[in-house]
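Minutes, project check-in
Item: structure for the 235-residue chain
Input as provided by the requester:
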Amino acid sequence: MAVGTLTTIPVPAPRVIDRRTAGGAMLLAPLAAVPLALAAGLVVAAGQALHLPALATAALAIGAVALGSRGLHLDGLADTADGLGASYDRTKALDVMRRGDAGPTGVATLVLTLLVQAGALTTPYQAFAAVLIGRCTLSMACANGVPSARPEGLGATVAGSVPRTAALAIGLAAAALSALLPGLPWWRGPLAVLLAYGVTALLLKRCTTRLGGITGDVLGAGVEAAVAAALLALA
């Protein structure tokens, strides 16, 4: 479920998708995204070896991740921005998010977030770490106590499916491993994790207040916001 949902890698569908499977998939999200992280890092390394412009190299790396994930999280970011900007009425906001188009608020949010990501992305290690840190936040977003905004959909399947202790363990592991990133002071990696989790937590609070819980789009928006925050901290 983790690989099939978060990447374009062809894998067999899960035999059963229940709360246990959903929670396990969210915990395994960083491992499922390792191929995407490797692709981003390799693109940056290749761009630097070819002496391509830094911004163009960063854009290619971000594009590779988007291609490898079907643009899933980017779509979620745009839809969430449109929903939050549409109306204070919960039903109307959720209806806007369900549509397939993107309004001006969603487009502007998407463009600005991608500009931040591309402008801050400078090294292969940074690219690799940021992609994985962003996926680590999914376990927090799906921890026990986080409600679903709808009775159906991906959000309803994964909302509240991850034990809080397990979500905390993922965050601590991410902070510990990020301290080992080469070429940076030991504290920069943990700071990136802290900022990524903080930005995602603020978005979750806003969405649960306005929408009554999370949706699949909110999860995607959290990932992209976390990646941007992590890249800024590592830049």
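Outcome recorded: The chain has 13 helices and no strands.
No further action items on this chain.
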